[in-house]
Write a structure and sequence with these properties.
Order of helices and strands: HHHHHHEHEEEEEEEEEEHEEEEHH
CATH superfamily of the domain at 5-97: DnaJ domain
Strand order of the largest sheet: 10-11-15-14
Strand content: 25-35%
Low-confidence stretches: 73-102
Number of strands: 15
Distance between the termini: 90 Å
Helix content: 10-25%
CATH class of the domain at 5-97: Mainly Alpha
Radius of gyration: 41 Å
Mean pLDDT: 83
């Protein structure tokens, strides 16, 4: 016995079947005639095929280990593809395209797709959470055939073209010998069965469209863009397969008073100049009810007053954001003669009849910045 098949594949005599298969695939990728057309390489490719044909078959491997020639017993030429000329084709295909997929018919039952619905909620519902009912249009299991796809009283039958295998094979000849290729059965589309009488309700799909009511629990602290997952509430799959998930995407509606920034709320209160000078109290309707906001004497326009823990509940973790009240001081535009007299008298008492003003560094305008940039060159 001149050829050492173990040496051809580069494995030891104690190599496992998995190690033998890996070695063959590695060499097949390097030496396949489509990759390397050199005649010497083709001879080497035939050698590794012969070696793998023997070592991958437990019976042939036993004959070889005992000193016999297993290839001469079945009349196959050295380097052939096994019994029938194509026994190792799937391993060669695996070497180039990865692990071969599961052979045999594919299932008619598959998982359904995920679905998404957008839900508009008020600020109060986002802040404290809520429970809402929504209408969902999705695919559900057909009640007539219970997902089987066949009309009542009938059932799927084995495909007579592929005999239930889901694929048909074709043998062609090449310079390497006979090669067998497989493809999905055109009659049953690879399922291995056919439905002679489809269900009239779902047309054989095993599912129908339906509108149903779903109760959605909205956690406190959600914001626009938050998605709430409901496992198994999406589309039922073909053949009555398991349903996908339903995602409820939140859209928070604008509030007439409060503007949300993260978990904090902001609003603006406008008070007259006299109230800002003397101080006052303003009633504000918050998410928690009526609150009294204390405006201290001398409050300036643009100042803010925080109301702690009056904002939106934190989605993750305890506590809430704040409510920030921005103060805007209103200057009267029209005065009657008596008001003007009193105001001038106040200015006289405060020494503010001809105020000089206090100038502070401010931001330059766009044209001033451009002018300074050009002058600095």
């Amino acid at each position: 016995m001149a050829t050492d098949y173990y040496a051809v594949l580069g494995v030891g005599r104690d190599a496992s079947q998995e190690e033998i298969k890996k070695a063959f695939r590695r060499l097949a990728r390097e030496l396949h005639p489509d990759v390397n057309p050199d005649p010497k390489t083709q001879e080497r490719f035939k050698e590794i095929n012969a070696a793998y044909e023997v070592l991958s078959d437990p019976q042939k491997k036993q004959i070889y280990d005992l000193g016999g020639d297993p290839l001469s017993q079945n009349g196959a030429a050295a380097g052939g593809f096994g019994a029938g000329g194509f026994g190792n084709l799937s391993d060669i295909m695996d070497a180039f395209f990865g692990q071969a997929g599961q052979r045999g018919p594919r299932s008619r039952t598959r998982r359904g797709q995920d679905a998404m619905i957008r839900l508009e909620i008020e600020l109060e519902e986002a802040a404290f959470g809520a429970t809402k009912e929504i209408q969902v249009d999705t695919a559900v299991v057909c009640g007539t055939c219970n997902g089987e796809g066949a009309a009542p009283g009938t059932s799927a039958q084995t495909c007579d073209m592929c005999r239930g295998r889901g694929e048909v094979s074709q043998v062609t000849r090449s310079f390497l010998g006979q090669v067998m290729t497989s493809r999905p059965c055109p009659q049953c589309q690879g399922f291995g069965t056919v439905v002679p009488t489809p269900c009239p309700e779902c047309a054989g799909d095993g599912r129908v469209r339906s509108r149903r009511t779903l109760t959605v629990k909205i956690p406190a602290g959600v914001d626009t863009g938050t998605r709430i997952q409901h496992a198994g509430e999406g589309e039922v799959g073909p053949g009555g397969g398991p349903a996908g998930d339903l995602y409820v995407e939140i859209r928070e509606l604008p509030h007439p008073i409060f503007q949300r920034r993260g978990d904090d709320l902001h609003c603006t209160v406008t008070i007259p100049m006299t109230a800002a000078s003397l101080g006052t109290k303003v009633n504000l309707e918050t998410l928690d009810g009526l609150e009294e906001v204390d405006i201290r004497p001398g409050t300036q326009s643009g100042q803010s007053i925080p109301l702690h823990q009056h904002g939106v509940t934190h989605l993750r973790g305890g506590g809430r954001g704040d409510l920030i009240v921005h103060v805007e001081v209103e200057t009267p535009q029209k005065l009657d003669p008596e008001q003007e007299r009193l105001l001038r008298q106040l200015a006289q008492l405060r020494g503010e009849e001809r105020p000089q003003g206090q100038f502070k560094p401010g931001q330059q305008g766009l044209f001033s910045r451009l002018k300074d940039a050009w002058s600095g060159r």
